[in-house]
Every structure is written in structure tokens, then in C-alpha cells.
Amino acid sequence: MGWQERALCAQTDPEAFFPEKGGSTREAKRVCTGCEVRSECLEYALENDERFGIWGGLSERERRKLKKRVV
Ligand code: SF4
């Protein structure tokens, strides 16, 4: 696990990270900005093809875009 123990979102409202469609992601992204394991988190999400929620400060759509650029 490692990085997940240092995940800042674990100390906040987890629901903010899985907003309903069209819901605000602003609060989650704000938390990610101050998270020390942000890059680990984002990498994990990309590797595991996480579909839902905010990971590493990026929404599903933003991760898809990022992936397209990398591949
Ligand atoms: S980057 Fe965001 S989603 Fe990832 S562990 Fe940190 S606070 Fe949680």
C-alpha cells in the first residue's frame, strides 16, 4: 500500500472524490493539490484504469485525455 496511507483524501469526505455525474469536483481537486502522494495516486489510477472518481487531482475525463496523449 504505502502511498495510500499518506493519502490526504482519507482524512476528508470521500464522497467529494466520487461526485455524481455533473457534480462539482472542485473540492476534491483542492484536496489533491495539497496531497503529498499525488503523483503516486495518479500513476496508480492510470495503471489500474480507474474509471470513477477523482484521482491525483484529475477527473475521469482528464485522465482519459492524459492517457491518449501518453499512448
Ligand atoms: S492525490 Fe487526491 S485522490 Fe489521490 S490520494 Fe491525494 S488527495 Fe487522494
TrEMBL record:
Organism superkingdom: Bacteria
Residues annotated as binding [4Fe-4S] cluster: C9, C32, C35, C41
Coiled coil: none
Domain (4Fe-4S Wbl-type) ranges: 8-65
Alphabetic keyword roster: 4Fe-4S, Cytoplasm, Disulfide bond, DNA-binding, Iron, Iron-sulfur, Metal-binding, Transcription, Transcription regulation
Localisation per UniProt entry: Cytoplasm
Cofactor, how bound (note): Binds 1 [4Fe-4S] cluster per subunit. Following nitrosylation of the [4Fe-4S] cluster binds 1 [4Fe-8(NO)] cluster per subunit.
Major localization class: cytoplasm
Keyword Transcription annotated: yes
Record HAMAP family: WhiB
Family: Belongs to the WhiB family.
Annotated protein name in UniProt: Transcriptional regulator WhiB
Organism: Actinotalea soli
Organism placement in taxonomy: Bacteria, Bacillati, Actinomycetota, Actinomycetes, Micrococcales
